[in-house]
Amino acid sequence: MWKEPLTKFGLVHNVFIVIAVMSIIVGVYFGYKFRGENNARKRDFIPCVFAIILIIMEVFKIIFGLCIGYPSTSLIPFQICSLPMYFLPLLYVFKKGIIKDILLGFNGYAITLAGIAYFVNPSAMLQSKYIVLSLHSGIYHAIIIGVCIFVFVSNNLLGKKGIQKFLKGFALFVVCTWIAMIANYITHQINPNSSLNLFYLYPVETETFPVIDKYVRPNVPYFIYYLSFIISYFVLSFVPYTFLLIVEIIKNKIQRSDRDEFKEA
Prior knowledge:
single chain; mainly alpha; 11 helices
């Protein structure tokens, strides 16, 4: 166990922010290396391998949680950042088509945002009393953000076509939120003392999504709160797009500069 509670932007949090940044850099680097039709199967297989790693880590967390007495419902692997375990391997299964577009947009945009948001507010890592669970959470999300950045870059999800894939993928995200909310509602109707809170969308007192949980949820009906969550998630999903667009612009300028120097030589 930790001797003292972890704090936001404390040593452990900052170390994992550095790890997350390194994971992003690696994802970008290998994303560019695996672009092109010749690398199509390889770039689909790589996320599948990391999904297996995520599944193994999740199984370990569940077993460890049961051993130390965590409520079983709190260990159900259906949170936003659990979804890559289910949807990353499908990139290798489906070739070109609408399903592949949905999977690319979902993992490249929606899950990349989830990885970024985690390191802004890593509540699972900071609130755990157990060192192994805190480290597990940090490493798990560092893998997610790196792999999903790789998916974004290697499949070049910028531009009009990339945004179209995102819109298709976001529809899948919305469906997943409905599944989570229905499961939350049914479970709490059966057992009002249940700890189940899939996607952290069950209306409890804790603030998982800082702004809307603090200022929106207490003052509006749940339906309005849910809409504000969906709209804010949709808008913020363009954060990775903006970052990777800047990276693409810088890369193209460097390449043009190199070509110009080569011609002059």
